[in-house]
Structure prediction request, 160 residues.
Amino acid sequence: MIPPNLPAWPPVWWVGCHGGAGVTTLARLTGIGLDFGSRGWPLVTPATPPAHVVLVCRATASGTWAATGAIEQWRRRSGMPGPVAVLGVVAVAASPRRPPRIVTDRLHLLRGWAPAVWNVGWVDALLAADDPHDVGASPDIEALRHAIRQKIHPPQESPR
Prediction:
């Protein structure tokens, strides 16, 4: 459900493919859009603008499986409440180690289905931070912020 007290339609809805994906941290660190949690898709109506969604999953077997299901649902428009544009999927590292092969295989598959797939590496300092802003944005977060801004505000071609 869309919160009734929104001052304006958010440019991006961050949607978790499962609980604990990292949606809140990403929304706060990028400073773009609103955290929709893992409640499903934002409910849009013909009176609202299309919802620009960034899906978030952990780079684990179950996380990438959930992301695959969400992308498949979006591609089929199955259960979609209205016009939803998925900008991409963010895979958040679950540990400082390399992800298992099943994770990299599923992310490779998702790259063929989703408009974009971004990886955000492990940031150990976030484990001890009450507020992610105390740690600051890693280079992966800065790159993600830039990529999303490019998608929601593409550069205009200059007239010839």
